[in-house]
Structures are given as C-alpha cells and as structure tokens.
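Much of our argument rests on the idea that a fold can be written as discrete symbols. The record that follows shows the chain in one-letter code together with its fold in token form.
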Amino acid sequence: MPLPVSPVRLTSRDLVLREWEDGDLPAMVELFDEPDIAYRTPLASPFDLNAAREYLQMIRHTRAEGQRLHFAITTDGHRPLGEVLLNLSRGTMGYGVGTAHRGRGLALRAAQLLTDYAHQILELPRLLLEIEADNTPSISVARALNFRPANDEPERVEGKDRALVLHIWAHDAPTRQSAH
C-alpha cells in the first residue's frame, strides 16, 4: 500500500509519533549527538545542525519516494524524545531514544505503535529488526514485541571504522481468521 500524501501521525494513550519538522533540528542535535547513537547507527558524528539538516533532507526525500517513514517519538505531540523509523523497501524498523529519556519504555511503545501501523494499515506481512548481539536494550524491546530471531545469517556491514554483525529479528503479521 502506498504511503499517504499527508503527514502521518500515530497516537496511543500516552504517545504521539509524528513526522519530523524544520523546527526539530535543535532537538535532533540533542538526541543524536551522543556516543551511543554514533556507535550504533549510521548517523553522522558529530551530529551538528548541518548533519541534522542533511538528515531531515534525506528523510523527506525517501518519504517522497515512498521508501521510508521517520517519526519523532513524543509524549505531547511536540518535544522529540527519540525516533522510530520504517524502511518500507526492506521491511526493517529502527528506534532510538535520547539518553535523557531512556528507561521510560518509549522505544517499546513507539515500536509497538509502528509495528501495528505497518501490519494493519500498510499491510506489510513481515517486519525485521537488525540488532547487534551486544545491544541488550534493543534486544529487550524486540523480545517484548514478540520479534523472534530469524534463521537468516547475520548481516555483516562495514561502517564507522568497524564491522557490524547484525542479527535479524522478525515479526509476522497476525493471520486473519476467516468467519464461517
């Protein structure tokens, strides 16, 4: 299913996922210019305002092409606390929460909301997470969402002066029961 033309906004009882906006550039710097984010993601490091502008431009470009959705994780619809994203061409999801906002279950709740949207609205039959074996917080989120290790071989990726070995976790859409 193609992406809607208008911005997507996903809400739950205590969470609002909204697409990134120009006014979010300083918050992006605050969230993404961290050693842990630099280590675990392909984002530029240091992540300054220029990097934020380039990232937002990439987000808008891939969104316009129907390839990706990037959401700011918020509790109020305004202040970004992290990001959750969906790469539609690969069926992969990713998430990250700023250091100051960790330990509140934001990644879990945001990833659950995006998983439901991807399966129910976008009708993606399978979602994947790519997680390094030592990334315990991301593995905890994956398990809590009922993602399971896939039988696929780990993906080896070169980046940021180190080799990453990404283990694949899969989540299949619930099968629909037909009414008889």
Q: What stands out?
A: The beta strands are 9-11, 16-19, 68-74, 82-87, 92-97, 126-132, 148-149, 155-159, 162-172.
